[in-house]
Specification:
By secondary structure, this protein is an all-alpha fold. The chain has a single domain, classed as Up-down Bundle (Growth Hormone, Chain: A), CATH 1.20.1250.20. The protein is 77% helix and 0% strand. α6 runs antiparallel to α13. The radius of gyration is 20 Å and the shape is globular.
Length: 415
């Protein structure tokens, strides 16, 4: 299958939607996963109490179940979208997400809500995988990284407003209304997509949906040093990020007694993430994706080592202000990482963008679930497991990146 034709800026002529609208729509579609995670955070104690969770850390499974569905779903949507097109595959994911939302809304026990969350993840995986492939249909290389950074700059509004949205809903209703709101947002986004976003994969570029074809595509992605290496690095980064997400409610509300201020404290580091995405959209065109990744990882490793030492001598409970400063610095670096990591992993895979996106998403999410659960279940009333997770996993990701780039140096800086 031929590569997509691009102009001097790395953009495909197939994108018919105006760029600002394209970025806003893609950000909204991709944000469904983040919204499904972050809006739940203030409600976890209520869900656990209403549905008889057996242990305090068990409420973290409300998030982990979604990640599990997300990991499994990503295996299928990429090959499916390569075969039937991006738009029909998105509609299938939206239908599954709606089914999971309804299951959670009417859940009467903890098992039922976990099933609903797994279905939500299974459905939301469609957006996560297909939107990346759709963007790759339209952009490549540094141009793709730039667009992903713009999208992440809008995407970060979700961690800022979602916990507050969840908290406001809890003030006037119960946690089930949060799932109703998620269902409504999903429906609104899919209507916008259906009305405005054209198909980006022409029929002549589609691949047959068969086990040998999918296996060959996954094998190609798995045996490409750059794609596999940066997929594993993405899993490490998302793993420490997920560890923070699943334990953030306990950290802020149990250690620091945040109460209704939880949404505010959670939003402060997210602002730094959004600012980083804005800067990365400009810096990546000059310095390149690999150089930005290495600088950001080195900064997280160094910062975590210093703050971890400080936290150790503070009996694992440093002042809240110091924690927020540390998290803001780490999240700024994360904002430099996410778009660049995905763009580098996808760079050699333009001819099988959907299947490659599925491989990258599945493997990186599976890796992240393992390490995210390990960090979350290690919560011991201190911030040390979370800080250690950031430092150690970023160090591993740095080493993997060096291995993956053994034959691909960062390259010269663009004047």
């Amino acid at each position: 299958m031929p590569e997509t034709e691009v102009d001097a800026n790395g953009a495909s002529p197939e994108r018919a939607v105006p760029l600002p609208e394209f970025i806003a729509l893609m950000a909204l579609m991709m944000s469904l996963v983040a919204l499904s995670i972050d809006a739940m955070l203030p409600a976890l104690p209520d869900i656990g109490a209403d549905l008889d969770a057996l242990a305090e850390n068990e409420t973290q499974l409300v998030l982990s179940a979604l990640f599990g569905g997300l990991a499994i779903g990503q295996l299928f949507y990429g090959p499916l979208s390569d075969s039937i097109g991006r738009r029909p595959a998105v509609y299938i994911g939206a239908a599954i997400f709606a089914a999971g939302s309804l299951c959670a809304i009417f859940a009467q026990d903890f098992t039922m809500i976990l099933i609903g969350r797994a279905l939500q993840g299974l459905g939301a995986a469609g957006n996560r995988i297909i939107i990346v492939a759709l963007i790759r249909d339209c952009y490549e290389g540094r141009a793709m990284a730039r667009i992903m950074s713009f999208i992440l700059s809008l995407f970060i509004l979700i961690p800022i407003i979602a916990p507050a949205l969840g908290q406001v809903i809890l003030w006037v209703s119960d946690w089930r209304m949060i799932f109703i709101a998620l269902l409504a947002i999903s429906i609104a986004s899919i209507v916008w997509f259906a009305l405005r976003q054209p198909e980006t994969l022409p029929p002549e570029n589609r691949r047959p949906l068969s086990v040998p074809v999918v296996f060959d595509a996954f094998t190609e992605a798995a045996t490409n040093r750059v794609t596999f290496g940066y997929t594993m690095a993405t899993g490490m980064i998302f793993g420490c990020f997920q560890g923070y997400l699943v334990s953030s409610q306990q950290i802020f509300q149990e250690i620091y007694l945040a109460g209704d201020w939880f949404a505010v404290y959670f939003a402060i580091p997210a602002v730094a993430f959004g600012i980083a995405g804005f800067f990365n959209a400009r810096l990546v065109m000059r310095y390149g994706m690999r150089r930005m990744i290495r600088v950001a990882l080195a900064a997280v490793i160094a910062t975590s080592a210093v703050f971890g030492t400080f936290g150790f001598f503070a009996a694992g409970v440093p002042p809240l202000t110091a924690l927020l400063v540390y998290l803001s610095g780490v999240f700024f670096c994360m904002g430099l990482l996410f778009g660049n990591l995905n763009a580098v992993a996808m760079e050699p895979m333009g001819h099988i963008a959907g299947s490659a996106s599925a491989f990258i998403g599945f493997v990186s999410t599976l890796v992240s679930i393992v390490f995210g659960l390990l960090i979350g279940q290690s919560f011991n009333g201190t911030v040390l497991p979370m800080v250690t997770g950031f430092g150690v996993l970023c160090a591993v990701a740095f080493g993997i990146g060096l291995w993956a780039d053994r034959d691909n140096p960062p390259g010269p800086v663009t004047p």
